[in-house]
Design goal:
Elements (H helix, E strand, L loop, with lengths): L5 H38 L4 H32 L2 H23 L1
């Protein structure tokens, strides 16, 4: 990936994140559906296991997404945030002022 620019890397990282979110949502829910349907057939119940395990799968999905968002927030806080851009811009303006003053002297 040495020939890739920063924009391409960001696009790939975002695509990977979207894929990860999709997988984290679908796998627990489908797992709950499969397990609930199997247990309903095995115990000959009227769908109670299906409902219970789908709800558990949905809860697990939201918990996984919450944990992922916490982890991503920490990563983004460490890298860049709006105040970083503002501070860098203010520093640049101050440096330009100093350069102008030094040229006039």
């Amino acid at each position: 990936m040495s020939g890739w620019n920063k924009s391409s890397k960001n696009i790939l990282q975002n695509l990977a994140l979207i894929s990860q979110v999709g997988i984290m949502m679908l796998v627990p829910i489908f797992g709950g559906v499969l397990l609930g349907a199997f247990l309903d057939r095995f115990f000959k119940t009227g769908g109670i296991f299906l409902i219970v395990f789908v709800l558990i799968g949905v809860g697990t999905s939201f918990r996984n997404l919450y944990m992922l968002s916490i982890r991503q927030t920490k990563d983004y806080k460490d890298v860049e945030n709006p105040s970083t851009y503002v501070n860098n811009y203010e520093k640049k303006i101050q440096e330009e002022k100093r350069d102008k003053e030094n040229k006039h002297e």
